[in-house]
């Protein structure tokens, strides 16, 4: 008998565990590997992801699920063990990114629409067979003095809702990710503008989810935090937490079991500090945790550097960030824990 969507959704966010976003498309992982001077090949991508997924204690204690790219869902470790089995053996859930990317939107200069709905029902059935129990789709909302437009906002929210309904029909929990960009261009907006755009985005997304008859109990929201643009950063940790909670409380129904933030280009430690502040001092109706890509992986990637002799160092770095973010998901991270490590 298949597990209920509601139960899987709760497992994804409960107990101070969170999600590892390891779903970089081939282009994006190539850019990440460029930073360590490593060529991206099927083998180097396998070796890197094997290092992460085989950090067994950290996966078991801190990582409830891993979001995979299609190649990784079907990939095997060097000894032939499927990655899906390695993830499951650590009591973690395999998930899959199902969008095929944010593409320039016709007639809307500077904005994108995320593609991938055609044939999605058939693909989801195959992903379920392969072991995926949740999925992810990212809609991208640009922020500038004149963007986003209503046309792009509505199209992206509609696509997110269509995707979510298809996932639930396939017994897969949808992670709904509308990302209002912190690191887009020009990236000089202040926190007020981010709050305004994020509130508008989440309101639109939840209206579309209702119209698409998506069960709120069987989904997870993956939003950005409310924060100023990357070229205008000045809000304190407390202010980011306060503004983020304010916007989420205005827009996210309490029937949603969990919110798992993206890191969006924040430094690893900032993303942890903000999550911890959000989880301490506020009475929240949802479990609030992490679904970080860069903020969980950056230090591990650097420590590894593409060298087999550095696998243990990479795993230590990954385990450390996973533990810090797990503490943050419980509101009990402290800066001195970073220094101690
Ligand atoms: C890990 O990066 C994900 C995939 O990006 P591409 O499709 O562009 O390759 C991305 O969707 C990620 O899951 C989220 O943006 C969260 O990652 P960050 O790094 O913002 O925490």
UniProtKB/TrEMBL annotation:
It catalyses: beta-D-fructose 1,6-bisphosphate = D-glyceraldehyde 3-phosphate + dihydroxyacetone phosphate. Pathway: Carbohydrate degradation; glycolysis; D-glyceraldehyde 3-phosphate and glycerone phosphate from D-glucose: step 4/4. Coiled coil: none annotated. SUPFAM superfamilies: Aldolase. GO terms for biological process: glycolytic process. One of its GO terms (molecular function) is fructose-bisphosphate aldolase activity. Keywords: Glycolysis, Lyase. Its EC number is 4.1.2.13. Signal peptide: none annotated. InterPro entries: Aldolase_I_AS (IPR029768), Aldolase_TIM (IPR013785), FBA_I (IPR000741). Belongs to the class I fructose-bisphosphate aldolase family. This is Fructose-bisphosphate aldolase. It comes from Rhizobium favelukesii. The lineage of its organism: Bacteria, Pseudomonadati, Pseudomonadota, Alphaproteobacteria, Hyphomicrobiales. The gene is fbaB.
């Amino acid at each position: 008998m298949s597990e209920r969507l509601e139960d899987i959704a709760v497992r994804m966010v409960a107990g101070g565990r969170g999600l590892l976003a390891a779903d970089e498309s081939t282009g994006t992982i190539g850019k990440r590997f460029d930073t360590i001077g490593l060529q991206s090949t099927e083998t180097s991508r396998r070796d890197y992801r094997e290092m992460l997924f085989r950090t067994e204690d950290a996966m078991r204690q801190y990582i409830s699920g891993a979001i995979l790219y299609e190649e990784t869902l079907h990939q095997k470790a060097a000894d032939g063990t499927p990655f899906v089995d390695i993830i499951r053996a650590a009591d973690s859930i395999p998930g899959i990114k199902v969008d095929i990317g944010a593409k320039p939107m016709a007639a809307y200069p500077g904005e994108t629409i995320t593609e991938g709905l055609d044939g999605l029902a058939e693909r989801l059935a195959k992903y379920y067979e392969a072991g995926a129990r949740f999925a992810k789709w990212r809609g991208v909302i640009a922020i500038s003095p004149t963007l986003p437009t209503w046309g792009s906002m509505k199209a992206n929210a509609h696509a997110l809702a269509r995707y979510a309904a298809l996932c639930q029909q396939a017994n897969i929990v949808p992670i709904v990710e509308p990302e209002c960009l912190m690191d887009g261009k020009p990236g000089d907006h202040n926190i007020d503008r981010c709050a305004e755009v994020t509130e508008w985005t989440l309101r639109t997304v939840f209206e579309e989810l209702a119209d698409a008859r998506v069960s709120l109990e069987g989904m997870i929201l993956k939003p950005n935090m409310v924060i100023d643009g990357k070229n205008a950063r000045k809000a304190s940790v407390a202010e980011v937490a306060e503004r983020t909670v304010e916007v989420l409380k205005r827009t996210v129904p309490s029937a949603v079991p969990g919110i798992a933030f993206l890191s969006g280009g924040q430094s690893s430690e900032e993303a942890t500090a903000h999550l911890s502040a959000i989880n301490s001092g506020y009475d929240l109706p949802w479990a609030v945790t992490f679904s970080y890509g860069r903020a969980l992986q950056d230090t591990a990637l650097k420590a590894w550097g593409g060298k087999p002799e550095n696998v243990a160092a990479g795993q230590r770095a990954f385990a450390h960030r996973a533990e810090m973010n797990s503490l943050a998901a419980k509101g009990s991270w402290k800066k001195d824990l970073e220094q101690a490590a």
